[in-house]
TrEMBL record:
Belongs to the tetraspanin (TM4SF) family. Pfam families: Tetraspanin. The lineage of its organism: Eukaryota, Metazoa, Chordata, Craniata, Vertebrata. Keywords: Glycoprotein, Membrane, Transmembrane, Transmembrane helix. The chain crosses the membrane at residues 12-36, 48-71, 83-107, 208-235. It is found in: Membrane. Its main location: membrane. PROSITE patterns: TM4_1. Regulates the proliferation and migration of oligodendrocytes, a process essential for normal myelination and repair. It is a multi-pass membrane protein. InterPro entries: Tetraspanin/Peripherin, Tetraspanin_animals, Tetraspanin_CS, Tetraspanin_EC2_sf. This is Tetraspanin.
Amino acid sequence: MGQCGVISSKTVLVFLNLIFWAAAGILCYIGAYVFITYDDYDHFFEDIYTFIPAMVIIAVGTLLFVIGFIGCCATVRESRCGLVTFSAVLLLVFATEVVVVVLGYIYRAKVEAVVNHSIQKVYNEYKGTNTDAPSRAIDYVQRQLHCCGIHNYSDWMNTHWFIESKNNSVPVSCCKPSISNCTGTLMRPGDLYPEGCEVLVVKKLKDIMLYVILAALTFAAIQMLGLLCACVVLCRRGHDPAYELLVSTGIDA
């Protein structure tokens, strides 16, 4: 029955190592997604420390490839040294993912305050040209999130671009896609997105950070299961009479 327990634990551990490889790819994808998305919204969110969870989760994903390889080799060969190394590295990764979760919650709580602080500045820098980074960022966000202005389209009337243009119009990126020949004129407010961008930008960034937190929690739970299985294999191998005999005669198991 003890031998069956070892076989069962080994089978689960090998299966988990395969999951670690899949998890590594998923974590790297999530980290890359965060970087790409933040690049689109970086003018609204200037705190570079928010990239830390994404950077850590990419590092964890890379490390999981190595962990999967070590775990498979150690499990198949039933190497005590390999399983101890595997368990130690897995415990380190688990601690790292706990840090990711904590940082994710901290930065997620800061999103609204940081966006509120920076969004007015970004709108004041709007020049309406494709060569201008803040202008491209605003047009992109308004089209992607279907919003206009900070709280609503009337916020544009307080910007330098609106005052200097003197055409009583907002950017055409405020126009609903269903409206043809929309020029952004305030004479036809029904053609424009009614919702402001501030709330939607905050929601988007919070959702991104939530994905990071959930991913870290999910794979931390899987790693704890892998750690448990490794410990079971180690303990049962240590109580295997044949193993103890080999150790006592100085032969490496």
